[in-house]
């Protein structure tokens, strides 16, 4: 933290008062944010029940792609993920065995088979996207005043907006560099 001295003039006598004010630097702010974020995550992260197995990161990536793009063939998935068709087929088989995807014949072209998420697959995928335990978070929020909750949300909105602006600018710069 940096200390600043403020001067105050009170008029005719011009008496100068020195106050010590702490100014938080960007580095200090970042360190505190990282520390607090880790603490919140550690305390409030969502856990999986003992009887539910969390899908692998590879399976989650495939489910995410299905959510975004819709049904696709094993060949299309293999191409998208730069994997051998046999490896992608094995992954789809595991997802199907767990009830997360179904293979559906194309009504127009019976030679094509599409892979699509089941209701269970969408539910498990949505669970993988829940970073914080809602009940623990709500119980924690109950301990804050309305003004504290409002300030917290406004602060998080500010950092989310700032980070989005930085990422957008970085992507634009990367595209500009690639086009040179």
Automatic annotation (TrEMBL):
GO terms for biological process: response to stress. It comes from the Bacteria. Gene3D superfamilies: Winged helix-like DNA-binding domain superfamily/Winged helix DNA-binding domain. Residues 1-161 form the HTH marR-type domain. It holds the Pfam family MarR_2. GO terms for molecular function: DNA-binding transcription factor activity. This is MarR family transcriptional regulator. The lineage of its organism: Bacteria, Pseudomonadati, Pseudomonadota, Gammaproteobacteria, Alteromonadales.
């Amino acid at each position: 933290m940096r200390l600043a001295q403020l001067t105050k003039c009170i008029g005719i006598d011009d008496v100068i008062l020195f106050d010590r004010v702490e100014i938080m630097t960007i580095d200090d702010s970042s360190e505190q944010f990282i520390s607090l974020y880790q603490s919140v995550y550690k305390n409030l992260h969502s856990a999986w029940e003992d009887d539910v197995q969390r899908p692998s990161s590879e399976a989650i990536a495939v489910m995410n792609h299905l959510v975004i793009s819709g049904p696709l063939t094993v060949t299309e998935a293999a191409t998208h993920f730069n994997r051998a068709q046999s490896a992608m087929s094995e992954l789809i088989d595991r997802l199907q065995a767990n009830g997360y995807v179904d293979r559906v014949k194309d009504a127009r072209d019976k030679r094509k088979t599409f892979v699509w998420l089941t209701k269970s697959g969408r539910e498990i995928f949505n669970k993988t996207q829940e970073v914080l335990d809602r009940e623990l978070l709500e119980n924690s929020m109950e301990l804050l005043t309305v003004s504290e909750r409002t300030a917290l949300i406004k602060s998080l909105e500010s950092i989310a907006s700032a980070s989005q602006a930085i990422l957008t600018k970085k992507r634009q710069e990367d595209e500009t560099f690639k086009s040179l």
